[in-house]
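Incident log, structure service

09:12 report received: a user says their structure output differs between two submissions of the same chain.
09:20 pulled the input from the user's history:
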Amino acid sequence: MKQREFRGVFPYLVSPVDERGRVGDAVLARLAGDLVDAGVHGLTPLGSTGEFAYLDREQRRRIVQVVVEAARGRVPVVAGVAATTIADAVAQAAAYERLGVDGILAILEAYFPLTEDGVVAYFTAVAGATSLPVVLYTNPQFQRSDLTLPAIERLARIGNIRYLKDASSDTGRLLTIINAVGERIRVFSASAHIPACVMLIGGVGWMAGPACVVPRQSVELYELCRAGRWSDAMALQRGLWRINRVFAKYNLAACIKGGLELQGYEVGAPLAPQAPLGDAGRAEVRQVLADLGALSRAPAAMPR
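09:34 re-ran on a clean worker, output below:
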């Protein structure tokens, strides 16, 4: 089967899990379906917004399965694989491919620092465990052993490592990566960057949690960028950047889950020991979503 190209808006889905550890299948499926209906170009379960570091193996597997079933092949599903060991990461990648995902988002967790050779070995093993396209994920703020440019250049020689999502907030670093490996690895923006600017320098889209709560606006921004309507794109980007600024003040998963609750999705609180969004944060998120026209899906009585 011919593999799809990944480009456009890929929301990082939240992981609705109740106090007993049960995945909220129904609300996750409804959210995934509504995002597809809103025009997003793909779905990414088990990204940072999906709280992958707080889930056990069975919860992760179930979340991926629900999203694949909800997508029904309409858009590609790129599932996050995160581990501290190569053996665990390889097992996850193989398991998610069997569940029917279209790609793997490869995340490295590390307790002890690793050499560049160790980092390269990890991502090489993940790519070798699947026939699917692999998206490298780099986030220097949270990763003890980050992907350096030399490591990225080495990994770009592997055939199915075809994309990179960078959450460094350093747009100059993105341009350096694009200049070095742009013909072999396509770059996705994160919410830490200004997506329109990343598109201008050669990015292919963005993978980010905020697209869960502003999917139509995110898709509109992408289409304006694709059409080269940069003035219109930046006018929309200025408004959307407000949501990024709010999320930068609070826990990301708490903000996205709080925003989705305001829109009528009972996705619950972030997994403990993370704190839920407080009253001040909730009020800020509500105001920004209202200003962006993103509260139309909300019921009359907002869940608390």
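09:41 both user submissions now match this output. Likely a transient worker issue. Closing.
09:42 reviewer note: Residues 298-304 have pLDDT under 50 and may be disordered. DSSP finds eleven helices and seven strands in the chain.
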